[in-house]
Amino acid sequence: MDFTDQIGHTIKLESSPKKIVSLVPSQTELLAYLGLGKEVAGITKFCIHPDEWFHSKTRVGGTKNVNFSKIDEINPDLIICNKEENTERDVRQLMKKYPVWTSDIHNLEDALSMINSIGEITRTVEMAGNLIHQIRNNFELIRENKPKPVKVVYLIWKTPFMAAGKDTFIDFMLSQCNFINVCNEPLGRYPEISSSQITELQPELILLSSEPFPFTEKHLEDFKAQFPKSAPVLVDGEYFSWYGSRLLSAPQYLKRVIENCFKV
Q: Collapsing DSSP states into helix, strand and coil, what is residue 192?
């Protein structure tokens, strides 16, 4: 059968894949949710969920520095990538030898389409369909009780400061909380941003993500001193940026974030 991915590339698979390599942490977690423990043979060093896989599956490098020799040892019949998380150079090189299916996620519909496609490719359509249905229902519940709009900056890195801008999945998730991302289009998708720019943007909240830079409690006092008019809040980056089965519990987490932010 032919399967076209989210960047328009079509792969041909004669049967359900038996040796899968996943180069995207959130999609690795999805494969685990779909019960593909036997089929998944390789993951990246950043694929930390599920923990059992992290300690037992072959690691094939990082998302942006793939170990091609490790992949060749596996000789997979399917590699799952993502346009943003993996480099175009690596994806193109892998395409020369293996079937590569690449996602491109900007919003919830993109994510649900990816889940459906992975279900079709791996013959787990029913489980994927049930997951999609539950995710839709959970997001509808959070949309019913949106709070007043709040201006935010969402930081993903510390030195230099880097933020999540528009046209990103993080930006979509912020919108589900009725958070207004003040890092708008001219700044780019993941802009470097100075302290003075943050002050000029006048965010009510500065959201400090747990990934890729691990902001923790120790950073809160520094941000309070540096940006006295903006309240810093720690958030779990996996719930804002992982677009696989993590979406099932994301709305409940977002609800807690909203409640905590209004206590700040």
A: strand
Please tell me what DSSP assigns to residue 103: E
Q: Are residues 135 and 26 in the same domain?
A: yes
**144-188 pLDDT, tens per residue?**
777 889 999 999 999 999 999 999 999 999 999 999 999 987 777
Give the up-direction half-sphere exposure of residue 158: CA atoms within 13 A in the CB hemisphere: 14
Which pLDDT tens digit goes with each residue over 21-64? 999 999 999 999 999 999 999 999 999 999 999 999 999 999 99
Q: Which structural domain, as residue segments, surrounds residue 14?
A: 2-139
At residue 226, what are phi and psi to the nearest 5 degrees?
A: -75, -30
Adjacency order of strands within the sheet including 20-22: 58-59, 40-43, 20-22, 78-82, 100-103
Total domains in the chain come to: 2
Residues 104 and 74 in one domain: yes
